[in-house]
Structure formats: C-alpha cells, structure tokens
C-alpha cells in the first residue's frame, strides 16, 4: 500500500471545474530549440503554448486553471520568461539543473502531490511534459479519482506514459500553437535541413566551402527574415540594454556606423485599429520628446513598453506587446536587434514615409 495513500487524499468535488497545471518549461524550451534547429527565441513559442493551453482548457473543457506552476533552471535560459509567465498567472519554480539533466521532475511531483492533498477542489491535473519518470505520480493521481491530462510534443512524450494514460487524455502541443507561429517553426526547420543537406552534398563532391545556389539562397533567406516579436516580447527588465543614470530610452547611431544595406520595412498597409493608432501616436510623441538633433532615432523596446502601460492600462501586457507586432506588419515600424553588454536588446525604428506616420506626425521626416 502506498505510504501517501495512508494520509487519505480528500475526494475531488463531483465534476470539479478547477484544474492545476504543471509545466516543465525547460523541457518545452529545449524541445523547441533542438527539434526546430535553434529558432530565434524559442521561449516565446513556449509562452504562446502556455497562453493557448490556459485558454483551451477554459473554452473547450470548461476548466478554470486555479493553480499554474512552471519549472526550469531559469538562470540558464538566455531570456527571462518569468515576467510574461507571472502576468499569465503562472508561478515559476526555479530548479537547478545541469547540462545533461532537467531537475524539474522531482519538484513537479512534490507540488502535484501537495495540491492533491491540500486542494480538494482541484479535480483535473494537467502535466505539460512527457517523461516516463512521471508515470508513478500520474498513476497515483488517477487512483485518487482525479482526471489527468498530458500535453506535449508527440516526439518527446514517452510511449509507456501514453499507453498508461490513454490517447484520449493526451493533448498535442502543436495544436496549441497559433497556425502562423507553427508554420514559421516548420519553415525554419525545413530551411536548416535543406542547408545541411546542401553542405553534405558539397562535402561528398569534394567542394566543401563552395556553396551551391540553393545553399546560398537558404542562407540569404534566413539572414533576411524579419526579427520576430519574440526578440523583444520576453525581455526581462534586468536584461535590457544598460543605461546611465537618467539616460533616455532613445539611441542614436552616427552616420558612419549605419549598416551598408538598410533593412526594409514590411509592405505598407493602413493602421486602422484605435489602440494601434494610439500606440503609434505615443511612439511618435516619445521620439519628438527625446530626439533633439538625432539623425537616426531608435527607441529601446523594453522601456517603451513600460511607458505604454500608462497610456493603454486597459490592455494586458501581451496585447500591448502585440501592438508593436501589428505596427511592424503594417510597415509603420521595424524592430532591430542590437548587440549590447551584458545582453543584446531591441529597438524600434519608425518609417516616416508610412501614410499614418505622416498623418499623425505632419512635417516630420527623417
């Protein structure tokens, strides 16, 4: 008889509408990074998955996620997702790992059992992971009459775990990613695989180091792909570009430091949504305020988003970030990454030829 069962787990309420979600965030992060061959900012895709999972549980299963935990050695991740997770209502558990072992397993199991014995209102346990190490705790949860569901990428989920749980209790993580985000991942992976195949063929032909036309095109395509919103979405406050005390969040690059090939803006379309226009208007106000005698103004993304909170307080954090993505897609701005110490940072550059920029900022052209 299980030692834990002697404590007498309280019965779950009949048809309980409440769920607890346990996310092995480090596992998800490294699957995205490794399987999709090092896409830019894989943590941003992981955040999309968490957000979509919470909404899907509510919309399709009628479950309110009262308890949400995410586990990772966050100090080892190159970007800080704790802020966005916190705003989604997810408590982060920092667990120490190594290069070879994710240490989330034990802490996740402990927390799941604690919730089982202290929260009788929780009827469903959702595990975002797939290691076979979780089989004993999942079996115990089921013996205590709890509903158990596992979310994961099919390639990373243990076959033994699926056999024990049943396919009807498995949710494919790919189905939770927005279609356009999943397509971007698949295209990135396909491009990398094609590039590797071209290099292999060149080596076999004894001409390694001389790129084929296909390899050159693949390299150019990856180099010219636009900077994703992920570059600035999850930038933690302690990882933004360093500033001197009292410095503004606007940069200027001298003319002799400008790149030879100026990046282009996305194809122009009108900005019609009121919140997008307000964001653009506020961006122009900030440029006018701080850009005296600056030839090429660049607004740091992270400080701008914090100030935007005061302008659009009714929007959640992720929607304010999404406004910049929409402005970029409309060709009103572009986002560029800058190298910095101790961390890279992202900046906003305005397209002064865009019709809405000209309308909101008449007489100002750069």
Describe the structure in your own words.
The chain is an alpha/beta fold. It folds into 3 domains: 161 residues, 5'-nuclease (Rossmann fold, 3-Layer(aba) Sandwich); 45 residues; 131 residues, Arc Repressor Mutant, subunit A, CATH 1.10.10. The chain has 13 helices and 10 strands. The strands form 2 sheets. It has a 6-stranded parallel β-sheet, sandwiched between helices. Helix 1 packs across helix 2 and helix 7 runs antiparallel to helix 8.
What is the fold's blueprint, element by element?
Elements (H helix, E strand, L loop, with lengths): L17 E6 L1 H11 L6 H20 L2 E9 L9 H6 L3 E4 L9 H15 L5 E5 L6 H9 L3 E6 L6 H7 L4 E3 L6 H26 L8 H12 L5 H4 L16 E3 L21 H17 L6 E4 H11 L5 H13 L3 E6 L6 E6 L4 H6 L6
Parallel strand pairs: 1-2, 1-4, 2-3, 4-5, 5-6
Antiparallel strand pairs: 7-8, 8-10, 9-10
Helix pairs in contact: 1-2, 7-8, 10-12
Structural class: alpha/beta
The number of domains: 3
Instruction: Give me the side-by-side strand order of the main sheet.
Output: 3-2-1-4-5-6
- The stretches of 5 or more residues where confidence is low (pLDDT under 50) are 1-7, 224-248, 252-261
Report on the biggest sheet.
6 strands, parallel
Tally of DSSP β-strands: 10
| CATH architectural group of the largest domain | 3-Layer(aba) Sandwich
According to CATH, the homologous superfamily of the largest domain is 5'-nuclease
Q: Which CATH first-tier class of the largest domain would you pick?
A: Alpha Beta
Query: Gap between N and C termini, in Å?
Result: 75 Å
Strand content: 5-15%
SSE pattern, N- to C-terminal: EHHEHEHEHEHEHHHEHEHHEEH
